[in-house]
Amino acid sequence: MEIATLLSGGVDSSVVVHLLHEHGYKQHLFYIKIGKDEDEELDCSSEEDIDICRTIAKKYNYPFDVIDLHKEYWDQVVGYTMDKVRHGLTPNPDVMCNKLVKFGAFEEKAGKYFDCTATGHYAGIEEHDGKMWLCSAKDPVKDQTDFLCQLSYGQIKKLILPLGPLMKSEVRKIAEDASLINSKRKDSQGICFLGKINYNDYIRRYLGEKIGPIVELETGKIIGQHKGYWFHTIGQRKGLGLSGGPWFVIKKDVERNIVYVSRGFDVKTQYGNEFLMQDFHYLTDNPWHNDEPHEITFKIRHTPDLNKGILTKEPNGLYKIKSEGMIQGIAPGQFGTIYDSDHHLCLGSGEITI
Q: What is the reported pLDDT for 238?
């Protein structure tokens, strides 16, 4: 079996190479480049990353190639992100980057020539009843199943995710013991492949700025200004520039370019206990084989914490989640990611709608 292993220059994917090498697998290493060469300001590629990948490839004597997917990324992921933001929604570029680029465009260009694709995502793949299922990582803080929640079954069944059963501290230890060049390299914090680019700068480049009022929800009083509703998301606390808080973004009026906020540590208007999802799909299969209400756990953002709730299919084809407790900052455009009641198997996802 020959494996296409995706490298980023970070310690996680490099440890994947080491672990698969230890098990005797034949690998071809790839770095996905998505930066626009003609645009230095938004050139997301990193020569340092590529150099590290080359060093890892040389250490294990594996072939290494750089795959240029910048057109696919900017056409699809950036296009998706800007469309959602323009409509006042909260997109998740990481989710769509995985679906459309890492396991979409890459598969078409190179991955289809290999038996499997391996990455450094913190998640696992398990076989049950002859089918492959995405499952949560051992490390709840690093778990990335919610970033893989829109993959198709065809993508899931080709995946190898060796870091699922490991804590981050164990991954670091493996890297140190293997004398990997990046064993002490800090984790990247950017959105998908954006790297060091500030997210608001990324949005500003495409949508510009448009001054509008910040209004206190309860009183209707204008208490500040914003530079465009697209810079703010439901539940946001930081970055509002208001005194006397804490202040939370409660809702947005897209047509009038108004951001509504409310103050306090326990603002009831920023909490809810149910929401609808459109374009819902099960990653592998409906484990219950029916559309009855079922107990689940779920997330609405990238966090180690899960909520308990009930999943119901509505007559109009939408899916509803009713949470056992109140949850903060439900924002249309986000993905609701559902898990089984033991929060082990990641079952599927849908886009939160109003």
A: 86
Could you report the per-residue pLDDT of 6-42, keeping only the tens digit for each?
Answer: 999 999 999 999 999 999 999 999 999 986 544 545 4
53 is an active site residue:
no
Establish whether 116 is a catalytic residue. Answer: no
Please pick, among 97, 116, 135, 149, the residue that the annotation labels catalytic. 97
Write down the catalytic residue from 135, 149, 192, 346: 192
Q: How sure is the predictor about 253, in pLDDT bands with cuts at 50, 70 and 90?
A: very high
Domains observed in the chain: 2-120+162-177 (3.40.50.620), 209-265 (2.30.30.280)
CB 324 within 8 A of CB 311: no
Phi and psi angles of residue 338, each rounded to the nearest 5 degrees, phi first = -110, 150
Q: What is the pLDDT of residue 266?
A: 59
The string of pLDDT tens digits covering residues 167-217 is 999 999 999 999 999 998 888 765 565 555 678 888 998 899 999 999 999
